[in-house]
Amino acid sequence: MEIKVLGSGCAKCAKxxxxxxxxxxxxxxxxxxxxxxxxxxxxxxGVFGTPSVIIDNEVKCTGKVxxxxxxxxxxxx
Length: 77
Fold this sequence. Notes:
By secondary structure, the chain is an alpha+beta fold.
């Protein structure tokens, strides 16, 4: 599973990445987490709000910090 957190590096973006990393650690997942801060690359995903979460090239969340429960549901899919 390839996970990308898109954002400028603001507090909400950092919180989103931290929550995802916590779920990776708790579940023992072999998922990779990448923080994308380049605005041109972020725009290429077609998202207009940050933070945004992309899992295996699918937009899962945009413009808000997801709840931990929501992140766990993504991992279960």
